[in-house]
Fold this protein.
Amino acid sequence: MLLALLALALVATVLLAPAIARVARDLNERRLAAQARRRARAAHTDFGDPGRERRAEGRARELLRSCVNDEEWAMYRDLGFIRVYGKLAARRPVFQDVISAATEQPEPPAPDVSPQYAYLIYPHKPIVAYVPQTRRLLSEYCVEFPDLTGAISRTRLPDSDDVLAKWMALTGDERRLIRNANMHLPGRQVDPGRVRRDLWRLAEWERQRRGSDSVEARRR
Amino acid sequence: MTRRVPIKFLRMKPGHGEIVLTEGDPEVREDEERLVEEFRRQLDEGMWAAVPTTQPGSGRREAQMVRDYADIPADAERVIFFPRAAGG
């Protein structure tokens, strides 16, 4: 009797095996398809949603606007960059101060004189240092703000957050930012022709805003 | 110096814009403990902290980098945390 039952079970298994295999294969295919859908959804959410990036940039612009001076905000809105005057140098040659910033030498006193150098802050591009009086380009400071916490992210700060981070670091601790940046000669990443055009645009913009008060506008 | 205003901690987040980490009244003990803890956590994660400021005389806006909770100006309404700078 037992032998007969075992034989029956064996026959049933042999007969059902293709069906069981087909069900297992279907389940596996469904699982793989679900995984692929999840991956595609995640990719879409993280990197491919233009609305999300636009909203992020909108938030970042509001934060930037609430932090910087009105003139700086208008400059960014109209020209796409912000100028910040350097405060490390006053009487000494510019290069000497840039070098002392990189080597942590004591900060010299800052008398109330016209700024010897300034920076142009572009989103996700190096900071460009130049001399306002002559428009001579001094150097590029390559700097970024990578968020390394948690999982490695392929996204970066919105443009306006990048500008605000540079602005805060420059106005709050110029020496430390310069020390952390990689300094290069002008033209390594930012086209000098473009910078000169931007300085001309800035001068025109300032002239239209407030007559001939600014340093750049006086040079015209 | 006694703080008079509630404070908000914001953090720049890649692909998102800023997020509110926490907020509270530093004069309330539980709030202050939470703020101190969050401040330390952010710095431990490698963030820089800055407080947007306005100069009393000129009205000129700048940022003040803060490295310790105690360095936050008494009238600060927000602290912005952002990833520390690295050579690009």
About this structure: Chain A touches chain B at residues 46, 52-53, 55-60, 63, 66-69, 72, 126, 142-149, 153, 155-158, 161, 164-165, 167-169, 171-173, 176-177, 180-182 (CB under 8 Å).
